[in-house]
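Dissemination and training. As part of the outreach component of the grant, students in the summer workshop were shown how a complex can be specified as a set of sequence lines and then modelled as a single object. The example used during the hands-on session is reproduced here so that future cohorts can follow it. Participants entered these lines:
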Amino acid sequence: MQFRQIRSATLNIEYAGKRFLIDPMLDPKGAQPGYPATVNSHLDNPLVDLPCAIEEVIDVDAVIVTHTHPDHWDETARKRIPKDLLVFAQTPYDEWQIQLAGFRNTRVLDGATDFAGITLSKTPGQHGRGALLEGLYGQILGDVCGVVFRHPDEKTLYLAGDTVWYEGVAETLANYQPDVIILNSADARVLPDEPIIMGTEDVREVYRAAPGATLIASHMDAVNPGTLSRAALRRFLDDEGMTDRVLVPEDGERYTF
Amino acid sequence: MQFRQIRSATLNIEYAGKRFLIDPMLDPKGAQPGYPATVNSHLDNPLVDLPCAIEEVIDVDAVIVTHTHPDHWDETARKRIPKDLLVFAQTPYDEWQIQLAGFRNTRVLDGATDFAGITLSKTPGQHGRGALLEGLYGQILGDVCGVVFRHPDEKTLYLAGDTVWYEGVAETLANYQPDVIILNSADARVLPDEPIIMGTEDVREVYRAAPGATLIASHMDAVNPGTLSRAALRRFLDDEGMTDRVLVPEDGERYTF
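and obtained this result:
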């Protein structure tokens, strides 16, 4: 398989001969206002430009949208992705939202969705912790998912999506024993200061729970709520002796597994 | 007060010296694909152009968004309405969605919101009936509201919003005794054939329940799910002897009360 970090949570993944686009945020730098109720919301998003032409990013066989927050599914994605391209959604409601933008070739992921011999398994995620998931923030943070990719000729890949470390991630690691794990680990925070995706301690938990896996840190240095930079994560990994199995790609960087 | 039908559910209302923009759908004709899971979804929306320049429509003191479906709050509205203009939302979640587009001067309507001496009262609505409001359609149809406008120098105005006739509308009529009532009465339908706003029979119920009021039929001839045209509604009103108190404005038409 080939992994390419595009920007923020947006990735290109080639897996068993099929090309996937994950969580397309394709807006130009600064096109979205800072996200309300998050830290550093005075900064416009995305914080940086795409590392390559949009045409390259959208030249795929299918799109996977883990949820429809504007850093995972934005206006430029809705406009530029061909309307007949297959788009996988996490829920029927997300599928409807994607259809609203004119996409008609949509599918909802389940526990074992077959796509050209690849098994895509929707996995649970939790976009924050505890009381934060109740009330208004619960509505705003909403449903999220991850996806496990399996194929007889490939290593098992686990895209965790926008989630903190919690028992759902632990169970996914135990059930699927993934070889490669992509973690959204920018330690994004909503006000006053509540984490909604993984930070350093969450990465450490995954590192311990998946002792044979390679971890990839994604969603870094790209949108206003992130509080953990690549530089700070690299320092943490270095201090903790975790650099052997955790990769921190720059935008545009590729890995082959 | 002055009422001006703009297009679909979009209205300009001048009330007690303040100018309101209601449910701005400002996209050019055909900019939105037909709404999924609705009748006639092969038709692009809006079905017709605006009857006047956008600049005229958005030259107001405040905006009211009864809910965020794309025929009530669209991309052109998000882009063209000044970001510092006051926008009233029905719920904190809708307010957050509006803030996501960069609007920061937002307020959530309640039972008696004061705006420059005008009392705006949020009223209940039901965007369909019975089992339709459960499950996926329930999520899609979501929360909706209406608004009652009151001021010592003005007649009482009831904007019912996207709702069918049900006990919540009956109670609003009984509680507020409005003089002027705006009904979204295009009989819009979701598949297979379920009404989600008022049709002829709902209009008749309101006509009977508010014997002193003038009714205005809005949301007509503008988006794909509508099944009741102005022409058909006028025939019904004529046949039933209801033309005395029900107005069916064309796009751009004004009334003063």
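Chain B has a mean pLDDT of 98. Students were then asked to discuss how this feature might be tested experimentally.
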